[in-house]
Amino acid sequence: MSTRFQISRLGAQGDGVADTPEGPVFIQFTLAGETVTAAREKDRGTLMAVLEPSPLRVEPTCRHFTECGGCALQHLERQAYLDWKREKVVQALKSRGFEADVAATVPCAPHSRRRATFSVRRTEAGMLLGYNRAHSHHIIDIEECPIVEPQIEAALPMLRRLAALICHTPQAFHLTVTHTDSGLDIAAQDAGKLEDKARMAISTFAIREGLARVSVDGETIVEPKKPVVTFGGVSVAPPSGGFLQAVASAEGAMADLVCEHLKKAKKVADLFAGAGAFALRLAAKSEVHAVEGEAAALAALDRGFRFGTGLKRVVIEKRDLFRRPLTFKELAAYDGLVFDPPRAGAEDQCKQIAKSDVPFVAAVSCNPATLARDLRILVDGGYALKSVTPVDQFLWSPHVEAVALLEKPRKRR
Known about the structure:
about 30% strand; 7-stranded mixed β-sheet; alpha/beta
């Protein structure tokens, strides 16, 4: 049975929110100001019909939209969508008492995502490969994907054939596909135990298809070509399945903000450095101390530095910054700092930065809520928040990156 709802606003996950006497009801694929009918179950509604559409409603780009759970907001006009992402950052900052200067959202183009993780499962009809339906483990088999780079979209049929060779489980598993400068790098997770015959078949297939690397559960099965990405002109071979910013242009925009802010710094600390997206760019002008908990990522960063040209010294340190943050005494050696932690943020590390005298700090985050918490610690410790820039890296999703720039006057000694 369907019920009529008036949508008042967009929620944090991109769902339309209807306020009712029993509380808010979240209805996917609806927009503020719309009148819709939906089948209600507790606090969620399944959209049945849009009776009065918003003037901001547009035709979705992808045929799988509303079925596939990969995108939430293809039906929202572009500028309104970018404004909504900016507002997420504004509201997160307000919740911590900030009336900050938040720039316009840096946009992300369709067909620009170089890395995607697909859900895969073997069925009697063949290999399902796509994304899970929202709030479900049901895999929507896709024929197109307008967020990924064309090389990944064109490879979908090939990926199904490769998945069939890798699959040794009745359960769903994941295939992470990265488009690198030397070809596709494919990492399977939870696909089951491989026998020698399967390894040979995968190796033959990968060589024939021109793949850069295929790995299963962290083990490289075949690597005909070293997968390579470029950080500011420095070539890096990232570890299989390791962290990489999803969109190269978004990474470049964030790096430009960070490098410009830290351009006067002679010695920079890069915390949660990954494989060197910031460190190797910063090394063009500054000495860098890159700190990261993942050994494979650090090794990739170190190799990139050693084979790079025209770089100042880069020193690496393997360290769990959640358990053992750099202390304010250790930070006294640096006049610039950037940190880019996972979604949980860097609360304990920020308490040490707040006590330090590092004059220029750049905070990069994929979670506005933890970013706002961490910025509050820094500002309460004497930093001035100069700017915040949202960056759209996960197109048509509710996720938004942000780069915050802070300064603290040097104490006279």
